[in-house]
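Render Monodehydroascorbate reductase in 3D.
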Amino acid sequence: MGRDFVYVILGGGVAAGYAALEFVRRGVGRGELCIISEESVPPYERPALSKGYLLPEAPARLPTFYTCVGANDEQLPPIWYKEHGIDLVLGTRVKSANVQLKQLTTTTGETITYKILIIATGARALKLENFGISESDAENVCYLWNLTDANRLVGLMQEYRGGNAVVIGGGYIGMECAAALATNRMKVAMVFPDAYCMSRLFTPKIADFYESYYKSKGVIFFKRNALASFDNDLKGKVKAVILKDGTHLPADLVVVGIGIRPNTNLFEDQLQLEKGGIKVNGQMQSSDPSVYAVGDVAAFPVKQFGNEIRRLEHVDAARKTAKHAVAAIMARDAGDLDYLPFIYSRVFTLSWQFYGDNVGRVVHYGDFSSGNFGAYWIDKGVVVGAFLEGGNKGDNEAIAKVVRLKATVNDIAELQRAGLEFALCKSQLVAKRYLRYAIAGVGVALAISIAYFAYGYGKSDV
């Protein structure tokens, strides 16, 4: 048995939904496109799982966060795919792929062939077993990567509300889950080996603000420490977490967020890999011309970083690489992706955004006591990264713009004093400069259009 398609998207995460919408907008024919997903529901906005989905009151639930609502775009419920002639092959795992034959084989033995394949397999959560921790399959040990995981976590939070929760990991998922657990009135302990939380992005000063805020919500930190083993009861349920320093933490619920690993296993001997992912060019095309890769699994050249190959683990990259791959496939003149790296988080009443790269000298500014602060990263005299807590839409667009344009910094002390005003002023000056040059060369009407583009240049959806 087999089916044949022009285009196949392998994977049913965020990237698949955005790719599907782009295909439809570019005129894909009925019956030409197929999406294969191990999940039982169409693509949805995965960030909701660690945010709104875990709220104790008025939690987010499907269908409210099907793609592509995360970018304030059209929502794609199940009926949308049927209406546009897209085959959704859900609850299906592909066990093998043959790039040479352009063929995928499912665990049921069905073969699906394609002319163009988009790999959107994303990543999988690292398990404690990857680090030598055994007996971690207890009923109250949770990971958070898909809807099934989220439903299980919600059930356990409701069952053990008021009890003790231990979060293993101090990164993105660990921080968001800890906030959700505390909001659900659990007593939360966070365990991680680093000197401070979110160490891959935060500076010690930024981390200190968030750690202090979490402590005010009852969260306890066990830093420079790690899980050694579990103390389980006779039924196999974890009743305590034992740390390497000998500390015993009572646990009704354990949430593990220790990183992810790209799902490249089907293609490791067939496509070129780099940075742990599938290496692609600026059009998201792999070493095989008929295969593209997007989202967490793709390692692509980032123009902002001098075309250095990066693999970026965030929803914004998944959305934009997916759309660009389809544009490159359908239009053939899409050019190379010009992507500004962007990540964000919302916990409790806090909300931060970061653009660019956190290399070079860091300059903090603002009022850390009130939660209105930010930071710039300066490398070779220009802004290469910017972080802002508590900014509004215009503020966030401004910091994105100065990073995108690599604004020059002549005086570090003045930059620290100006803080956010540096970005706001620079972004306005850029628009005015484009308007002035455009008026001189092309006339007022076209000049206004160019200035409008310049003002929006670098803007990212949230």
